[in-house]
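[job 4471] stage=fold_predict status=RUNNING
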Amino acid sequence: MLKALVPSSSKIKCDSNGYIENFHLKYRKVNTWEEYEEIISSDGSVRMLTITGLLPFTMYEFVLSFNNRDEQSPWSPLTKARTAEDVPSKPRNVELNPAVYTMAVQWLVPDPTNGVINKYIISYWETYNEATTRREEEVTAISQNINRYLITDLTLKVSYTVQVGAHTTAGLGELSDMVSATTTEQDDSNESTSNSLSIIAMVASIIAVVLVVCIGIALVVIVRR
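[job 4471] inference complete, writing structure tokens
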């Protein structure tokens, strides 16, 4: 919503043809080829006009012309103004990449943003126990289309549900669709590798002992001869 200030007809007078009786206001988005929307006021005493139905955080251009009883004035120079921010739409394409105790979250910025995104709110909880496990993380927004965050300190082999919301100066917008994933099982690969190395070391030790014993026996036999 924008408000256009229009001078009172009692303070504006045409050079030769009397006082202003009404005005024409035209507006459209900047840098477009759209046709101008036009508002005609039949009341020359109006000083302020509220225009509704405009897009949030969008630049518009305006031109104004006055009428008296006999003629219409030339159009004014272009005036530009930006509408205020609104809460953003919901973040898009939320994806989860689970690990043992963590969950990587990735999402796209809202479209439209309806302003400058200054932070994101990530809500997550155990899928079957939202009432007691729901938590939130606040993430500072960065200037890129794809955003990522790592949720830590999770429980292994548990399903978690995640939603992401974007925030502007107007407040928190609609939360994204809910997405769920289960943290993975404990990774035993390192332990298996360690056990394998221990077995190899043990076998090598036994072989070394056997070789030493064999060499010792061989030396004794040679000396006796």
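[job 4471] summary: The longest strand covers residues 159-168.
[job 4471] exit 0
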